[in-house]
Every structure is written in C-alpha cells, then in structure tokens.
Design goal:
The chain has about 170 residues and is α/β, with parallel strands linked by helices. Helix content is about 30%, strand content about 10%.
C-alpha cells in the first residue's frame, strides 16, 4: 500500500511546482511528496489521530512526516511527539470561497451528465476520506438505505477521467 502512495505522489510531483517558499501538505495520502522537495518550508497538516494510530500506519507516516519542517494537528489530543515543530490549529472553512458557493441548476445538470450520475437516483454526498468505516455498506447502515447507493470516490479513475481539471482541484 505505501509503495502505491509513493508512486502516486511521484507522478503528482512531476506535475506540481514544488519550488515554493512554503508548501502545505494536507492529509496522510500526499505525505510522501516531501521526498520531492525542492526547497522552502514544508508543513504537514494532520487531521487524523496520530496519538494512537495502528503501528503499520504510524511507521511509514513518521518516516515521511519527520522530514517536514513542522506539523499542524487539528486537535491537541491527535498530536504526537515528533522531532519537528508542532502546532494545533482547528480546521477552518472559508464560506466565501468559490468552492463553497451555490451551484446553478445548469452547472449541476452539466456535471451530473458529464460524470454519468443517474439523475433519478438519490445522491448522498460524503465529504470525507474513504476507509473501512465509510464504505458503501457502512453508509447504508448509517442512512438506512439498502440499495441504489452510488458512490463517487476521489480514487475512482473513471470519474476522475470525466472530471474537468477545476473539479479535481475542488
């Protein structure tokens, strides 16, 4: 699994300008990008519980995480002692950013058509990472819906191919 993360980040690094004064990496998945560092200050934003992770998770994360200049944790109880500067900053959302504006009916219709999402089926938007607690069956148990659940994951190659560059960034 970790080799896959590294390879995905290697490909992403080829398409990113990593020669910046400061680079902020958010989430565990892109943490290997630090291996392709070209200078500047690198900060890792961690919102998962690093204080009590599974051993097979923290080992690889810390090997990359310790190469950053600093780490930001979402809450103090998720922090873990690291040999770099650490900060606790609560998550924040800019309600006025373009990503948070209301979409027009035309934009919704066009996106649903382009992504080939059946318009006659209920849509459940799950804004989170996908892991074992967020699978289709877990979602079904939490919502009470037993069938006709369509999930679109950030890892769905087919959906990503149909998405525009702007939609993938959002």
């Amino acid at each position: 699994m970790w080799q896959h993360h590294f390879e995905v980040n290697r490909v992403n690094a080829e398409n990113l300008d990593l020669a910046a004064d400061a680079v902020l990496i958010h989430d565990p998945q892109p943490i290997p990008l630090v291996e392709f560092r070209k200078g500047g200050k690198w900060i890792w934003r961690c919102h998962i519980d690093a204080a009590n992770p599974a051993g097979q998770v923290w080992g690889p994360l810390s090997r990359y995480g310790n190469k950053y200049d600093a780490a930001i944790f979402s809450v103090a109880k998720f922090a873990r002692a690291m040999p770099i500067d650490e900060f606790v900053i609560a998550p924040s959302i800019d309600p006025l950013s373009d990503k948070n504006r209301e979409l027009s009916e035309d934009e919704i219709r066009e996106t649903v058509q382009r992504l080939q999402i059946p318009p006659d089926r209920p849509i459940i938007l799950q804004v989170s990472r996908f892991d074992s607690s967020r699978t289709r069956s877990a979602l079904s148990r939490r919502t009470g819906l037993r069938r006709n659940i369509t999930t679109v994951s950030s890892f769905s190659r087919e959906a990503r191919q149909r998405m525009t560059r702007k939609e993938r960034r959002c």
